[in-house]
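User: Predict 4-hydroxy-3-methylbut-2-en-1-yl diphosphate synthase (flavodoxin)'s structure from this.
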Amino acid sequence: MTQCLPAVGPAARRPTRQAKVVWGDTVVRVGGDAPVVVQSMTNTDTADAIATAIQVKELALAGSEIVRITVNTPEAAQAIVAIREQLDRMGVSVPLCGDFHFNGHKLLTQFPECAQALSKYRINPGNMGGGKRRDDNFAQMIEVACRHNKPVRIGVNWGSLDQELLARMMDENQQRAVPLDAQAVMRDALVVSAISNAERAQQLGLPGDAIVLSCKVSHVQDLIAVYRDLSARCDYPLHLGLTEAGMGTKGVVASTAALAVLLQEGIGDTIRISLTPEPGGDRCREVVVAQEILQTMGLRAFTPMVIACPGCGRTTSTVFQELADDIQRYLREQMPVWRTQYPGVESMNVAVMGCVVNGPGESRHADIGISLPGTGEVPAAPVYVDGVRTVTLKGDRIAEEFQVIVQNYIEKRYGRQSGQ
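Assistant:
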């Protein structure tokens, strides 16, 4: 009897509405049949228009398809137009999302040029006061979004959850025959807050396909539970992110652990990796991590992947490590230009291996690969192109010669003329 093997790969994406985030001719689709979108956020003082525009450009070139900017003061709101104009002059058409909190209703109303220059608003209902004041402030922001035809992300956050809603749900929970624990009630309150505010936004006139939801928490298992529940109870596009993920390896691992589970289950339409940069660190790292999560899971391709062995006692030389790092950096740095010159290059695999144990095999499986000599091995490095051994490099210039081979391969295989 033939055994039916289980399917490999992520589950089909959950069906959702599709929101459009637009600036000029650039249209970023979120949800529906669109690929998962990568987002990031600036950490400059928004009132410093030049510094902020420069960082937005850096994030966009790294691959952020929407960039969020804090709009928290009149000075920041006034700077939005200058930021947008500076980006347009630099040829950077990435849509900007304004991040609003306590005074967003005032800023959007008092600075209509800011409201128009932004492509999307992020609203946190938990930071807009209480009772009627919260309702009025929320309604005011939605009215501005309707007037300017802007989509809105309603972002509920663990640290700023509507306390009136939470208190009411805690009271109701105590009336249950078997009450839930407090953590479960808080998770439920996040979902209820997001959906109820989305429904109210629609009642106020915002189209259902102009709404994206997020429920941010800082613990992996809570995030997974919240988004599973949220995805089962609505069809709005969902923005994923582990808030306050942390710094360095911890932030990368925690974000990956949470988002990979959800993405594998078909949940999530746009993502942001909320890393705390090391002092002087590169803000673009969170964009790279988001791309690598999606690419390693087979959901999207952004840049050629470099496969490299971890090294062992057979590879005391650092040549293969340096070559893998050089090639990976070179490929990523070239992608802003190569996206238009060499369509499809982002799906290429390059293997840089350190010895003969797995080196030749991995190199054959890659589009192009090299097996460098390990400790005590013959000082020769066979190169494989499309599974065929083509040349063996020797001497002191193996790294430089291999990089030339990679460049020539890209030009030959992915150049526009190759398909004509």
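The first helix runs from residue 49 to 62.
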